[in-house]
Amino acid sequence: MSNYKILNNDVHKDLRVNTSRSAQLGDNIMYTMTFPMEFRDIQSCYPIFFCKDPESGQLYPAALLGFEQDQNLFLSDSGWDATYIPLMVRRHPFLIGFQANPDGGEGATKPVVSIDSDSPRLINNAGSEEGEALFNQEGAPSDFLQTSIGALESIHRGLEHNKGFIAALLEHELLESFSLEITLNDGSNNQLMGFYTIAEEKLQSLDGDTLAKFNAQGYLQSIYMAIASFARLRPMIDKKNAQLA
Amino acid sequence: MNQRINRVVIVGGGTAGWLTAGVIAAEHCIGSQNSSPEDSFHLTLVESPDIPTIGVGEGTWPSMRSTLQKMGISETDFFRECSASFKQGTLFKGWRTGANDIYTHPFTAPQSYNEVNLAPHWQTAREQINFAQAVSPQSALFADKLAPKQISTPEYAFNVNYGYHLDAAKFAEFLRKHCVEKLGVTHIKANVTGINSADNGDIASIATDSHGNIEGDLFIDCSGSRALLLGEHFGIPLCSKSDILFNNTALAAQIPYTDENDPIESCTLSTAQSAGWIWEIGLPTRRGIGHVYSSDHNTEERASEELLSYIASTVSEQAAAAATLRKVQFSPGHRAKFWHKNCVAIGMSAGFIEPLEASALVLVELSAAMIAEQLPANREVMDLVAERFNDKFLYRWDRIIEFLKLHYVLSQRRDTQYWRDNCEASSIPEQLTDLLALWRHQSPWHRDTNNADDMFPSASFQYVLYGMDFETMPSQTERRSEQADQQRAGRLFQENAARTQQLKTSLPTNRDLINKIYTFGFQKI
To answer: Which CATH superfamily is domain B7-58+171-238+332-398 in?
Structure first.
């Protein structure tokens, strides 16, 4: 379970973060949320699908990492084997929290950096050489923390961007449900269910005005990157078959 | 006689009127037609600004989902605007013995119902597990007040089959808005002051106080139990069914929740009384609780005492003290025919019977769907369509009446005259008596309801029969097919138990899901 606390350079001054990648540290995930702003990097490594948040039913784009629960085919004994690691993976153990903002008027909130105090990544030992420090001697954010905060800011913007992107896709009925049956070399079947993908027939029948609007909003590029990312399925199947061999 | 039928006039604007308008308008694309004005199809609904709607039928069948979907209604809007909640069936209390006996009639048919009849295989285990629980996960779900789906399930789709409970007044208003704004229905607020006949006896137009004469080719009477057109004008009589189904009076109350987060029932509760039964329907905003009884067997005073004591024990003493009861009287029965000349009755104008299996709205849906589908092209062919309509709906009314009567005749209660009278052979339709004799030796299955117009599937008969402890004797000789199915049946019982557990842990409560619909809405995909 997670237990997020607002990050504080006094309480958390001695904390260090293990940045290596492993199942023990929680990287054994089948898919993770992604954002159009990182689609260019994501599609060079992972297939992009869409799935629903079980708590709200809202759709979001996701990078596929494995074919079953807790399986991440990019994880090996030597770490994460890909040129790009998704923002939502890199954010750990941090999260953007929201705090009441009295300056902004009634009900206003401001984003604050929070940290999961139960995260297996935390090393509570000032003398340790392992991992990355959060603050320097003077209590100022380390380079590592600054980079992490940058990632959180990107996620914050990405969440907003996803809302508009998904709403536009749904309005034009450009998403369709999809299930994929993958037969591995050992004869076993893996069925991927509960995912959605771009409805290409609908896309091809969009009128010029809608296409122009999508282009201006940057959605058109994101849509085609998602479609192109399908090509990344094959290398994943090969990876899985190699593990079985 | 070759006059085209392209002006349909609906008289009356309750749920029956607006549901009928929506079904016909959507099928005939009235809101989006491109033809010239004289060729185009017109649907007008005339509603009295002075007569309040009666608001019957707060429970629907699963059929309402596709009815709404075909009308182009968003299920999210429907939930948000009609105070709707999920209904997964009915739970009957006290019907068997009058003590604390319980059985259920869920909307989901038994496991693999199309391939295996589980009823004979359940007989050997009937002491250990009740029928509904053995064959379907649904009654366990409504015991926990769970929803039939998740927020990530697309609109109108489900994990287990469902219909709705709804606020009838809000529903009529919601449909009106949709019909007028999206489906091209013309809405006229006026009182009908007279009916003008054509030479052939058809209705040529209706006279109104504020909009003159309104002409039409087909008139649909949705004016309620008064049956302004079919009853008062054409004199088509009501066929009373009070010799079979005795209930003719209802006392209804709306009871607020004690706490706004109180759980919402996900089935209709029906609790037998000394001379009738009490319904309880959970909406997000309130409970609808009412007592429907026979005025020949009970006084209003005693009936309201029973109702208030039910409210006091299931909700609170305060709620019972604060309750206002509204009395509705009705004559159980239906018109001798429903379509006469160029007039067809839908809703209470066609007939009304106690709401034991929520048959009121589904009859409106079926009537409207048949008119929409078989709308006569011209006056010449109308009489044939009318004859078919009459045959079909007379058959359906008979089936409904038999199925409702079944609930009474299986009772072991003999504590009041009402229950004793209900088991008098003279009050039981002949076909029902015959079927009960047959079902002593073989359990109902597809062969018993193979007519497309049957209202209740054989699975419903199984749920009521075996819920009420009816016994079907085992076959007297060995049967090859039963032996072959035996292993399969055992597996299906196990699968049902596993699926029940899995659904119980993955489905949200009725209240939680409805709150999520308010916040997030359902997805269309």
So the answer is: FAD/NAD(P)-binding domain (3.50.50.60)
Q: What is the pTM of this model?
A: 0.92
Residue A131 — φ and ψ, nearest 5°? 70, -165
More confident residue, B446 or B510: B510
**Domain count within chain A:** 1
The burial of B51, by beta-carbon neighbours within 10 Å (0-12 exposed, 13-18 middle, 19 or more buried), is given as: middle
Give the one of B150, B152, B525 whose C-beta lies nearest to A176's C-beta. Answer: B525
| Cβ pair B523:A177 closer than 8 A | no
Residue B55 pLDDT greater than 70, yes or no: no
Instruction: Using CA coordinates, name the residue in chain A closest to B512.
Output: A55
**pLDDT value of position A245:** 80
Contact between chains at B523 and A176 (C-beta distance less than 8 A): no
Q: How far apart are CA B511 and CA B147, in angstroms?
A: 8
Q: Helix, strand or coil for residue B519?
A: helix
ipTM of the complex: 0.84
CB contact under 8 A, A57 and B524: no
Looking at chain B, which residue has its C-alpha nearest residue A197?
B525
Q: Is B505 on the interface with A (CB under 8 A)?
A: no
Which residues in chain B have their CB less than 8 angstroms from residue A52's CB? 152, 523
- pLDDT tens digits, B494-509: 999 999 999 999 999 9
Q: What is the mean pLDDT of residues A17-35?
A: 95
CB contact under 8 A, B523 and A54: no
Q: Rounded distance, CA B219 to CA B342, Å? A: 6
Q: Does residue B382 carry a pLDDT above 90?
A: yes
Contacts 24+ apart (CB under 8 A), A44-48: A44/A83, A44/A84, A44/A232, A45/A74, A45/A82, A45/A83, A45/A84, A45/A232, A46/A74, A46/A82, A46/A86, A46/A229, A46/A232, A46/A236, A47/A229, A47/A230, A47/A232, A47/A233, A47/A236, A48/A225, A48/A226, A48/A229
Q: Which domain holds residue A170?
A: 4-244
Kindly state the average pLDDT of the residues B19-34.
89
Domain residue ranges of chain B, discontinuous segments joined by +: 7-58+171-238+332-398, 249-329
| Inter-chain touch B523–A57, beta carbons under 8 Å | yes
> Which of A34 and A127 is assigned the larger pLDDT?
A34
Residue of chain A with shortest Cα separation from B520: A56
Q: Which residue has the tokens 């807790």?
A: A70
The C-alpha atoms of residue B321 and residue B380 are separated, in whole angstroms, by 60
A56, A170, A194 ranked by CB distance to B151: nearest: A56
Beta bridge partners of B91: B104, B269
Q: Does B519 touch chain A (CB under 8 A)?
A: yes
Distance, CA of B170 to CA of B157 (rounded, Å): 23
Say whether B136 sits in a helix, a strand or coil: coil
Residue B187 forms contact with A (CB below 8 Å): no
* B515 Cβ under 8 Å from any chain A Cβ: no
Q: Which residues contact B129 (CB under 8 A, 6 or more apart)?
A: B122
Q: Whole-number mean pLDDT of chain B?
A: 94
**8 Å CB contact of B153 and A57:** yes
DSSP string, B466-478: HHTT--PPPPSS-
Q: What is the per-residue burial (b if ≥16 Cβ within 10 Å, else e) of B241-250?
A: beebbbbbbb
User: Is B240 touching A (CB cutoff 8 A)?
Assistant: no
